[in-house]
Amino acid sequence: MEISPIVPPRKGRNQGRISAGHPALSRNDAIEILILTILSKSPPLSMRMCLSKNLTTEYSSGMNCAKILAPSKIELTDSLALEGDVAEVLPRLPDESVQCVVTSPPYWGLRDYGIEGQIGLESTLAGYINKLTNIFAEVRRILKPDGILWLNIGDSFTSGNRGWRAPDKKNPNRAMSVRPENPPGLKDKDLVGVPWRLAFALQADGWFLRSDIIWHKPNAMPESVKDRPTRAHEYLFMLTKEERYSYAAEEVMEEAEGGGKRNRRSVWSINTAPTYGNHIAGFPQELVEPCILASTKPDDFVLDPFFGCGTVGLVAIRMKRKFIGVELNQTYLDEAIQLVKRQAQTAEPLRGYTRYSTKQNGYHPTFLETPGKRRKVS
Question: Domain check: are 25 and 143 in the same one?
Fold first, then answer.
């Protein structure tokens, strides 16, 4: 793919407009162009353009003017891992291109991932809900009309306006140096109710709220509390774009008492599982498996806009689906890609226990992930 340099405007009627196609301008004078190679077997599909501060072109009006073109859509042909801010990446994905979305966004006020642009440390609960509602509005555009969104979200307690959280002897990762203040109307020690506040916001924004699934954790993390029960569950919401959608109930039947099968119930008892690498808040593959089985067929695309340690990618590859993962943290994405590469070589899950078996699929995603050739979308 040949990219023409960008040159200063010609004098006259179009003075003040930056145009392409002239070889005279040097790289240091005008606009920096970064080619983004999406897949090793595909041509460059997009570019990033930044106006240079040292652009020196004479304008009689004393004002610079540039034509900014909307970024092109990313063509989807194979599994894809994208590094970037989800709010900037999702608009690059084509309309109605994925059959299923399985994701778990960062929870509000519970983790500080130490990266600029992260979600979860908004100063207000309303800001957090609004940001996620806008992101999932973009997800709805990308989802096929008969597709399903599976959204895992956890809850939190008010901070007491302390602005920090000490480590727990049984859970040192809970320590934080910054925490949002109590939302208006809530008191110290109140349960915030984040999952249902988000679910209702998505419902009001046009989503069909079809099911609230309780993810029961038999091996839940202990808590140093004596004035309430230890939390041992999270929510998994099933939302759809349309009133009618594709749901394969027969693919996720469960054992009935006395033998036989029955329709899957809305309480799923699944152990938490350790993650490889630096990411400490991934969900288990056993939680993702029924979501993908019930709402996709082989070769369908599954999207996770908060890719994290890559669990959705691992399950998708093993079940002969293609995935799209979006992740802001470069370290997490690097580690996830290495795991997915390993998963592509075997039909067995890389970690944990799975209650579903799949045959060797022979499906291998293509990646181009060398230190100097990252796929950033911005």
Answer: no
Task: Judge if 65 and 84 occupy the same domain.
Answer: no
2 contacts 23 by C-beta, under 8 angstroms: no
Q: How far apart are CA 231 and CA 286, in angstroms?
A: 20
Q: Could you give the number of structural domains in the chain?
A: 2
Alpha-carbon distance of 58 to 11, in angstroms, equals 9
Contact by Cβ (8 Å): 332, 279: yes
Distance CA(176)–CA(171), nearest Å, equals 12
> Quick one: 10 and 122 in the same domain?
no
Domain hosting 5: range is 1-72
Q: Is residue 36 in some structural domain?
A: yes
Shared-domain flag, residues 22 and 133: no
In-domain check, residue 365: no
Which region holds residue 151: left if phi is over 0, alpha if psi is between -120 and 50, else beta? Answer: beta
Q: Which of 9-23, 40-54, 128-142 has the lowest mean pLDDT?
A: 40-54
Q: Report the b/e string of 42-52 with b at 16+ CB within 10 A.
A: eeebbeeeeee
**Which is nearest to 275 in space by CA: 226, 311, 242, 319?**
311
- If one compares 193 and 164, the residue with the highest pLDDT of the two is 193
pTM for this one? Answer: 0.72
In tens, the pLDDT along 108-140 reads: 766 666 677 778 788 899 999 999 999 999 999
- Count of other CB atoms within 10 angstroms of residue 332: 24
